[in-house]
Structures are given as C-alpha cells and as structure tokens.
Amino acid sequence: MTNAITTTARPAIERRQLNLQQQRVRAAFWFLAPMLVMLFLVAAWPLFRSIYFSFTNVTLNNLYAGEWIGFDNYLSWRTLSSGRTIWRGTLVDPAWWNAVWNTVRFSLVSVTIETILGLLVALVLNAEFKGRGLVRAAILIPWAIPTIVSAKMWSWMLNDQFGIINDMLLNLGLIDHKIAWTASVETAMVAVLIVDIWKTTPFMALLCLAGLQMIPRDIYEAAKVDGVHPLRVFFNVTLPLVRPALMVAVIFRMLDALRIFDLIYVLTPNSKATKTMSIISRENLIEFDKFAYGSAQSTLLFAIIAVFVAAYMWLGKLDLSGEGR
Amino acid sequence: MANIELRNVRKSFGAFDVIKGIDLDIRKGEFMVFVGPSGCGKSTLLRLIAGLETITSGDLIFDGERMNNLVPSKRGIAMVFQSYALYPHMNVFDNMAFGLKLANSTPTETRKRVEKAADMLQIGHLLDRLPRQLSGGQRQRVAIGRAIVRDPRVFLFDEPLSNLDAALRVATRLEIAKLHHDMRDVTMIYVTHDQVEAMTLADRICVLRDGVVEQVGTPSELYERPNSLFVAGFIGSPKMNFLNGRLAGAHGCHTLGIRSEHIDIVDESAIWRGGVIHAEELGSDNYLFVDIGAQDPIVVRQAGKRQIPYGTKIGLRPVADHLHRFDERGTPIR
Amino acid sequence: MTIMDTIKSAGFYLAVAVIVLVAVFPFYYAILTSFETGTALFEVNYVPSSLDWSNYATILNNGTFPRNVLNSLFVAATTVAFALFLAVTASYALARVRFRGRGLLLMTILAVSMFPQIAVLAGLFELIRFLNIYNTPWAMILSYTIFTLPFTVWVLTTFMRDLPLEIEEAAIVDGATPWVIITKVFLPLLWPALVTTGLLAFIGAWNEFLFALTFTSSETTRTVPVAIALLSGATQHETPWGTIMAASVLVTVPLIALVLIFQRKIVAGLTAGGVKG
Fold first, then answer.
1. Nearest to C112 by CA among C81, C141, C148
2. Alpha-carbon gap, residue A167 to A186, rounded angstroms
3. Where is it mainly found (chain B) (predicted)?
C-alpha cells in the first residue's frame, strides 16, 4: 500500500481515510467478534477446563478443591513390595475399552449400512415416478422425530412381551420364541443399530439424492445410447460422481455416531453390550462422582475424534471450507 | 465533469499482476472505452477507478484530487453493471432512490431527482414495479437511471449490453450514445470486449492487453493507424488480413496487413492470384475468401453484386497507401 | 420384453412401498398405541381398534408435561434467535469479505459444530455453576449455542456466498456500509435461508438430550426429551407406554408438520450444510 509518488495534496487527510477493503476488513472484525467470543465461552474454554480437570482429582461437589495429579486418571502404576506392579487409570480399565470397542463397532456398522441403504433409497427417489414428492416427505418423518421419541417408540415396538416386532416375526415364523431385544446382551447392539439406521438413513438418502441430482441427465442418456449395462453405469459413472458428496455425508455421520449418547441412554440403559464412550464418561462425571476420571475419558473421546477428522481430511484431501468452489 | 488521470497504476492479486503500470488521461466529458480480449484487465481497471478494488501502487486522480483511498460512494461516480444488479426486493423507485436515501437527501428532493431521471429514460410508468416484472431492456434502463440519479461526475459502464439480445443491444447502445450527448459534462468510461461497441460509442478508445495499454486514440485513428499488430487485428470487422513470409517480404516487412475493403479485384496488374474458396453474402456487402497461398485465406470486400463462382481464379491488388507493414515485434514500419 | 418391464416396474414400486412402510410405520404404531389403555395396550394391533383420548388427558392434565413443553419452546426459540442474530453478521464477514485466515476460521467453526458434546460437559458444568444458572432454561440456552451457532454460521455462509456480487457492489457505489448492506439489501433476500436455518437449528435444540439431562435437576425445569425419557408410571416396574406414546405424538406432530411444510427448504438447508464441499 505504499505509494512512491504521492505528489498530490492532502496526504495528512488520506492517512486517516480507510479504503474500501480496509473498511470492510474492519467491519468484518466487528461482525465476527461477538460470535467468536461466544464460541470461546461455550466451546474453547469448557474444552480447556475439561482437559484440565482430567489431570486433577476434583469431585462433582467441589470443583475447586482438587489438585494436579498428572496423568494418574489416564495411567499410573505402583510397584508393591512383593514386586507386583499395579496398573490403574482409564487406559487399563476394561470397562473403558469395552466402551471404545462398542463405539467403534457401532459407528462402523451403522455408517456402513446407512450409506448403502441411503444410496439405494436415493437411487429410487432419483427415478421419475408418480408420488415421488410424497415418498420423499415420508422418508423425512424418521429424521424429524426427536431421537428420544424414536428410542421410546422402538423400545415399545421391541418390547419382549407386548412388542409388535416379536409378534410380526413369530407370525412370519422367523423366530420361535419372543426375544428380549433391548435387555439381552446378544441383541442389545442389534436393537440400537436398527433404531439408529432407521432414524438416520433418510439423512444419508437426502444428501446422496442431492449429489445424484447434480449429475447431468445426458450422461445417462449417452450411456443408454451406447448400450452400457446399468450396473456398469452405476459403478463407473454414478458412484465416482457422487463420491465427493458421499464422503462429506459419511464423515458427518461418522462424527455423529462416534459421540452417540441419547439413543442408547434411553433404549438400552445399563446394558454392557451397548455402553459407548459418551455414556461411560457421563456416568463417571455425573452419576458415579468420579468427575476427574470422567473428564479423562471425555478428553480421550475428543482426542480420538480429532485424530479421526485429521486423518480423514488428510487422506481424503477434503476441502470442507467450500472455498474451492 | 471530471478530468481523470492515472499515473503508473498497478494492481496485483497476490503474486499475480493484473494491471502492470498504466498511465492514462481521460478528459472532462469524454466517452472513453476500454476494450480488449478477456483477461486483459479492462474490468479490473474500471473497478480500480470505481474504488471497488484497491490500487496496489500508482495514483488515481480526479480533477487534481487523489482518489486512491476514497470509498466508491465518495468519489462522485456511478456504475452500471453487466447483470443490472438491481435490488430484487425494491421497486424501481426505491432502487433509484436508495443511494440518495443513504446520502440523507430529503424526500422531496429524492422524488424530484428520481422522476427527472425516469422521464429522461421513459421509465416513469414503471416506478412501482419490481425488477422481476421488467424486461431485460427495461431493467438496464433502471440501472442506468439509478446511476443518473446519483448525479455523478464519472459514469462507469461494465459491459452493460452483454446480457441483452442482439436487437436490444443496438437499441440500448443508441440510448447510451444519446445519454452521452445529453450529459455533455459527465465523463463516461465504458468497458467492453466488443470492438463494434467500442467503435460506435467512443470518443476515444483505450486498447488493453495483458494489463498494459496498447494504444489510445479516436476510433478512426485506431482503425487507420494502429500502433501494433495486436491493435490492427483487434479493431475492425472483418479482421484485418495478415500475410507473412514471402508475401510480406515482397513489401519489405515481417507481417503485412491489409483490410478487406482495401483490396481491388483486377484482371491485369494483379499482385496476388488465387481461387475463391467461399463467399459470404451479407446483402449490402459480399466477402470473398481467396486462397492466395498464404496461411489463411484472404478476405476481400466486393462492392456490387457480381457473382463469382466458387473456384474461380481471380487477381487481387491492394490499395497502396492502405498497406500496414509490421516488423517482427509487431511494431508498425512507417 | 414387456413381461420383463412389468416385473421391473413391479419390483420398483415394491421397493418404494417398502421404503414408505418402514419410514412411516413406527410413528403410525405410536399413534395407535397412544389411543389404547388398559388391556388393549397389551394386545398387538395392526389397525386402530380404539379411540381413547384418556392418555392425552393424563399427559396434559397431570404432572409437569405442559410446563416441559413451554420450557422446550422457550429454550429452542431463544437459542435460535440468539444464534441467528450472531450468525447473520458473522456469515456476511465470512462469505463476502476477503481477509487473511478466513479459511482457517471456517474450518474451526465447522470443527466446533462436530464437537463431541461430552468433551465440554465437565467444563460447561463448571461454567454453569459459576454463572449460577444450573437448573434454569439459561443453562440450556447457553450450552446449546455450542452446536446451533456454528451450524447457523456455516449454513448462512454458504447461502450468503451465493448472493450475486454485483448487487453488493451496486450498494457499495450507492454508499452503503457493510451494516446497511446486511440489513437493507441482503436480509430481505435471505429470508428463505433464515427460515430454513432457523428451523433446522430449532429442531436441533428441541431434540437435544445430553445437556438438558445434565443441567436440570427438577421436573419443572426439564425439557420435553428429558421429560419423555424419564416419564415413569405409578410403580417402578410398570412403564406407562400409553402416556409415553401420547406425549411423543404430541411433541412430534408439530415437528413433522413443520418439516413437511418446509420440505424443500429443509433439504436445501441440509445439503448446504453438508454437500457443498
């Protein structure tokens, strides 16, 4: 912005004058400031405090009385006089690793099935047929229902004695005795997966549909004229073209799945088979009065998700900022 | 009203230089057209004058006053955009009055000025309409009206005709020419990539290429005495014929240029001979494409309507004092 | 060939029917259950067999449910209004002003919206205790900002980016400051986007469970999801399925109605938030 030849008058006045770009940047700063302050207050600061708590031994009732204990909530060991070493902390807690395993299993299975089903539903909805609008409206219903409500609805339908699902399966002859879907250890995860897939497939389908509709129709017509088999068209044309949209949808869903809490809290409370990282950290934080220990677990969850996002963005070279458009 | 001076004006976006040092004087009340191929920097130059982009270095001076750091609304300019850029939710009156209201003009004064401009453009009956209820031509008039209402000292046009269809384009071009006659003391700067628009509207034309000025002059100066091979090829329709190699060497130059209307069809004393490979009949004129062994066929304007069958061998002779000779660097040899 | 075509189209419509049935049936069954009491509740019906409003009467007249609905409305509406207010100006800055670090800022905002909420629970708990708003609606309004604000900023930024540049430049030439551009020029054009974004944020706030569960301690301050989750019957072992379903239907029907009315806009909003990568 320096001018070598400022021969004309009024340099003094000019110095105080901001040009358009400078004026806009200044306005942008004031426009962003309230939002940034707010995000700092509700996100950055609490996150920092949570991480801090994980290195202390504070309790729920006295958040300020704790002292710094380093990594003890994560991992610590003590060698007894007998020579035996006792390990303690979240990282050697079988309940924690059970939760990690549950969360990962749930996320991978649910997102995979949702992606496949979502793509299938989107393909159906992408075809021209009478009443397409109605069908699209119908699949929005599961999405619109609050998670808690759908958990309750399904736990009623999956009820062991009076549930309609058992009744249907019995009538169809697929099972010979009633199953305690939500209570039994073997089926609890299946029940959670059913409900989650039912509720979130519409979201996937809508995102896939939006991706599909961006593909120009004449590509299909050209393929048809050339007599390419529809399956080959799908794998060689459709899939590569919706891949970017699909990638974004998958990461959004994956992040959502990794932090799942409410569905499991209501549908299969206290079932060891479905306890996830979010559930177990909240248990420790609020219910078991192991506030600092719970903080350590929530911090670990945060770290896992952060690593996952970083890896995904790095591997996928994903431009989520939308700047590249 | 304003005398505009540009002194070594430069603009770069990051490491990319768009405007590479432009010196230009635009006289008070003049109609100046910036013309050039896409990417030559003509729109950027206009936006620098408007103040929508910040000048990287150099000076922009209106009537002796440096404008570099002044916001657009303080420069006394008005601008007509390619896409009209009307506010879609405001009716025509509010569209035209928006700037005045922001400048705290009184309601009576605002109404007076809007109505005067509307009458001038014959859009008085449209004041209550929304932009979406108007045709393309009407929208462009409103956009011009909005600019007039600001009572600017500099009027800026950024390709205002390129969204209109061919017929409307000619009519609106006439409208803008009339506006220039009516507002004699307002300096107008007009950007286009269409050299016909430039030739028909301009008092003077500034041909830009890769961020530098190629030539500034009146339309006839540019047409008759192009300063470079580029200007010679850019101005005029059909394009000037260029001959290289042996054909040019015969006239002592690297490239020989000759316009289609400066070639006579002759039987004897022909300098070039060749077969007619195509003919375009435009009604008033016929253009013959003749293969004389050069890289491209040579285009010849044929007065009258004598039919020359395809494949006929004819002789051509350029009018001697309308030959344009250029050296290897594209500069004219005079 | 014609037989093949018939089979194909029959198969297609079968797929459509299955999709619709699976999507709609659970809610249909909830409605069915909500009209049943006593022993009728414990017999499996596929078609309506009774039309008994007593579950609705129970939920509306007894207990704190109406109060919970009001809580939810207040919390969701306030959260959304607050988020939109902050997001409109912020998204203008992010979408339309060139400045250094803009891409990084956008990524940060997106990252915050994908936060696992449990990761800030402990810190938020402390903050809410410190501000002395535990067990009040303000606890929820404050904590919901963590997901509504980034979401609204993000979606509005994508909408704001699509507004034509020349209109803004015309306004600049007319002498409009950034504030005037937002309020007088862009806001009137952004109404549809604001409605969509607001609605999506509202649904998010209305459905939130983890914070509402953690930051309330009495029945009268609960929001609807918590109230439904913790609804208990006369005895410990008897789940009042009829009233739960009645409550569920009551809070879901308006939501479904809204979603169906704004169907197209919601799809646009969801994809703006997601696909336009």
1. C148
2. 19
3. membrane
Task: Please give, rounded to a whole number of angstroms, the shortest distance from the CA of B75 to a CA of chain A.
Answer: 12
- The least confident of A160-164, A291-295, C159-163 is A160-164
What is the distance in angstroms between the Cα of C187 and the nearest Cα belonging to chain B?
A: 10
User: What total number of domains does chain B contain?
Assistant: 2
Nearest Cα to A198, choosing from A107, A83, A117, A273? A117
The domain locations on chain A are: 20-45, 93-316
Helix or strand holding residue B20 (H, E): strand B16-26
> Do the Cβ atoms of A35 and C97 come within 8 Å?
no
Given B233, B263, B281, the domain boundary residue is B233
Strands B187-192 and B31-35, bridge-based pairing: parallel
Rounded Cα gap, residues A300 and A99, in angstroms: 12
Q: Where are the beta strands (DSSP E) in A4-152?
A: 76-79, 85-88
Architecture, CATH, for domain A93-316 = Orthogonal Bundle (1.10)
Instruction: Give the integer Cα–Cα distance in Å for A210 and B322.
Output: 61
How many CB atoms within 10 Å of residue B177? 13
Q: Report whether the peptide linkage leading into residue B238 is cis, meaning its omega lies within 30 degrees of zero.
A: yes
The complex's ipTM? 0.86
Q: Is the dihedral of CA B315, B317, B323, B327 positive or negative?
A: positive
pLDDT digits (tens, 9 = 90+) for A264-313: 999 888 888 889 999 999 988 888 878 888 899 999 999 988 888 888 77
Shortest distance, CA B214 to any CA of chain A (angstroms): 24
Q: How far is the CA of A159 from the CAs of A174, A181, C35, in angstroms?
A: 17, 7, 18
Q: Which of A275-279, B300-304, C46-50, C108-112 has the lowest mean pLDDT?
A: C46-50
- In what helix (H) or strand (E) does residue A304 lie, and over which residues does it extend? helix A291-316
Chain A residue set in contact with B, beta carbons under 8 Å: 1-10, 14, 17-23
Q: Is residue B332 part of a domain?
A: no
Verify whether the Cβ–Cβ distance A140 to C263 is below 8 Å. Answer: yes
CB-count exposure of residue A35 (10 Å: 0-12, 13-18, 19+): buried
Highest mean pLDDT among A5-9, A281-285, C136-140: C136-140
- Domain final residue, candidates B196, B212, B233: B233
Examine the domain organization and report whether B256 and B130 are in the same domain.
Answer: no
Query: Which residue reads 């990524």 in tokens?
Result: C107
- The sign of the torsion formed by the CA atoms of A157, A161, A162, A164 equals positive
Whichever domain contains B260, its CATH number is 2.40.50.140
Tell me which DSSP letter residue A59 carries: B
Q: For residue A96, give the nearest of A303, A298, A237, A268 by alpha carbon.
A: A298
| Residue B47: closest C-alpha in chain A | A20
Whether the CB of C107 is below 8 Å from some CB of chain B: the reply is no
Residues B153 and B280 grouped into a single domain:
no
- For A220-231, how does the pLDDT look when each residue is reduced to its tens digit (9 = 90+)? 888 888 888 888
Tally of CB atoms within 10 A around B329: 8
Q: Is C135 left (phi over 0), alpha (psi -120 to 50) or beta?
A: left
Domain ranges, residue B100? 4-233
Domains located in chain C, CATH noted: 2-52 (no CATH), 64-274 (1.10.3720.10)
Q: Token pair for residue B54?
A: 């910040």
CATH code, domain carrying B132: 3.40.50.300
Secondary structure (3-state) at A211: helix
For residues B300 and B215, membership in a common domain is answered with: no
Residue B238's contacts (CB-CB under 8 Å, 6 or more residues apart) are B260, B287, B299
Amino acid at the residue A277: M
Contact C241, A156 (CB under 8 A): yes
- Say how many C-beta atoms besides its own lie within 10 A of residue B59's C-beta: 20
Q: Detail the DSSP E strand segments found in C102-157.
A: none
Chain A nearest-CA residue for B11: A1
Please judge whether A38 and C228 are an interchain contact, meaning their C-beta atoms are less than 8 angstroms apart.
no
pTM above 0.90, yes or no: no
